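Morning run. Coffee first, then this:
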Amino acid sequence: MYGGLSLFVCFACLLPESGLAAGTEPAAVLPPLDLRNGWAGHLSLLVMVAAYVAAMFEEATELRKSKPMLLAAALVWFFVVLAYQQQGNDLLAVTAFKTNLQAYMELLLFIMVSMTYLNAMEDMHIFSALKAWLVSRHFSYRQLFWITGLLVFFISSVVNGLTAGLLMGAVVVAVGKQSPRFVSLGCINIIVATNAGGSFSPLGGISTLFVWQHGMLDFTEFFKLFLPCMVNFLVPALAMHFALPTDKPAAAHETVKLGRGAKTVMFLFAVTIALAVGFDMALKLPAAAGMMSGLALLQFFYFYLQKSARGNQYQKSEFELFFGGNDMKWSRLEANGHDIFEKIARLDWDTLLFFYGAMMGIGGLGFIGYLDGVSHFLYGQLSPTLANILIGLSSAFVDNGTLMFAVLTMHPDIPPGQWLLLTLTLGVGGSLLAIGSAPGIGLMGQAKGQYTFTAHMKWFPAILLGYFASIGVHFLVNAGSF
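And here it is:
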């Protein structure tokens, strides 16, 4: 049945479109409509504001943030397309929707592969082994403060901030059982280091990935932010250093055995990142294409692990896999941790769907024309430098990925140095408040009662000083990019 359907679809794709086949000219495309002062624009703006407010109060309402955003995005484009249909031509609106959808799909595929690799490495106890090694080394509190900060600074350049932050946060909580002050300062340091480290690499976060994906900066240009990001981390870290306890925690001995194939998975992850960069720079293909190639490598390696695994495991034939069979027996094969689709299923789908709603909704508001007005104010009446600094400060309250996509939708005409400045400020601005970034929110739950919003606020002046110091260093070392 499926083979016949596939042949039908392929045959249908070869046929000419009905309008052209009949010899008719394609419909003329009208210029964009100004919907800002009409019912469609007002309703779209209203539902997006309501959806974002609902997402901000997710913890209070217990309503996952993706739900209002998905509904809002659907309503925005329903209003837009309906308004265009009333004018007799909806082709422009449909094309705009597809353009925004393509941008989201590239982001989704990139993150899906990256997180699948991270889940595979977690199942093979790679992160647990690193944590056990650090805990057992009998470092002093001050040494652990700097070791965890520097490690997470570099790890977050290739691993998403929440994962990197929680990994080092687990180390801080494990060794700081007798020192709440160390846990509090260690968590603040990890948050600042994570956000700073994720800002000098296009792989470090959603906002940097957006800029790279949209072609505003080449892959290698992001590394110009290394020194500014390092300064952003060092300034508050040096201030907190003198408030740390000077003694050593009791060493805890724990042995963690890496899973079979762990080193190969780490190697394949490095190859996958190289493929993503190579596809983008050499072939001019989306980085997601290289990531999907890397996912294929991981799937083949897991197939090898399945086939070469020892023990009494039942293997289904191709016939049984296609037409069904004894699911209880098949579950024994999946239980050995070699099911790649289980790792894909464990992605943070709530956040990924939230970004779909945010990107499509903001894209809709941009198509309506609202973001043009904001862009004219920020990058016309204000200087680009002041605009980027203010946008970065606002990332302490609003998700930086959403803000970055909004700016990209505005299409400001700014030089590479300003794009780097925006990338820097949006990346590190979330460190100003405990709720300003995913690592901060995650560590408040992980170190509950020890790392709090109030404890973070006590070091707000030092973090703010690091924020402006990093901007100053950026203007100093990257003056040629402006």
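Residues 91-123 form the longest helix (33 residues). Good start to the day.
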